[in-house]
Amino acid sequence: MSDNIIQFEIKDKKAYLEINRPKALNALNKNVLAEIKKCCDILKNNSSVHILIVSGSGDKSFVAGADIKELQELHNKNREGENFSKWGAEIFNSLEQLPQITIARIQGFALGGGLELALACDFIIASENARFSLPEVTLGLIPGFSGTQRLRKRLGTARAIEWIATAERYSASEAYTFGLINHVVKHEDLVFFTEQIADKIIKNSPLAVKTAKLVIRSGENCNFQEACDIESHQFGHLLNQAESVEGISAFIEKRPAQF
Ligand code: HXC
């Protein structure tokens, strides 16, 4: 990827997207956002990749937000601020809609747009040194990459309003208690632990895992009954696929399934 502001690698059914602007604490400038979009475009039709791990380079920061110097350039430019927000939100939607399971692997600061990026992933695994905040109101702004909505969905309305209105910075253990993140691990174990979770996912039927994500996420955009109907439809579809023939046969024959 251009200028190495993103390091993108595909290895053994896993893709790694690392934001690489450590001197700016991996802040998301327009070039970084455009590169994230390119990675999503590569991944969306790549069925050989089952997992995407998103990280930031260096120990100090996952991503410290949108690039504030670029935001300053948007002052009083009519609709450019709104357009920037919409453009970034569309990129994060592309990330959220990827067929792969996406994991945000977080060390250090996950602030503003950085936390919004993590929220667009399927789940978050964090080091004990991780710090989470949506501090936009300290800049006279609000989250603009759909963070108001994704944080509300994750934590509920009351906590989302408190988080955003106070701009409080939370530790990894607090974020875990609130249900923002799935795991907190010792800093030195972060990479290995994330790989272990990824490997557990990869061992399972790829089609079933992909379908499970699709069905779970479908519930975010329709009512309960519609989502359950999608679940039944997909369940039936999976029963007609080779992977469930293999999974069920393997169980009955008392051998590991080969997917
Ligand atoms: C641009 C940033 C940056 C950012 C840090 N840097 N965050 N540059 N945009 N978001 C740069 C600093 O300017 C500095 O560069 C270098 O990274 C190191 O940062 P320091 O501040 O010197 O480090 P430290 O004192 O350790 O403080 C770390 C920090 C602080 C607490 C994370 O940098 C900070 O508060 N950053 C801003 C966090 C924030 O408000 N994020 C939300 C942005 S708004 P130099 O060149 O001076 O060494 C947002 C909106 C999203 O995300 C929606 C848009 C539509």
UniProtKB/TrEMBL annotation:
GO MF term (any one): lyase activity
CDD domains in the cross-refs: crotonase-like
Family annotation (Pfam families): ECH_1
GO biological process, one term: fatty acid beta-oxidation
Lyase is among the record's keywords: yes
Keywords noted in UniProt: Lyase
UniProt KW Oxidoreductase keyword: no
InterPro entries: ClpP/crotonase-like_dom_sf (IPR029045), Enoyl-CoA_hyd/isom_CS (IPR018376), Enoyl-CoA_hydra/iso (IPR001753), Enoyl-CoA_hydra_C (IPR014748)
Protein family membership: Belongs to the enoyl-CoA hydratase/isomerase family.
Entry protein name: Crotonase
Lineage of the species this protein comes from: Bacteria, Pseudomonadati, Bdellovibrionota, Oligoflexia, Silvanigrellales
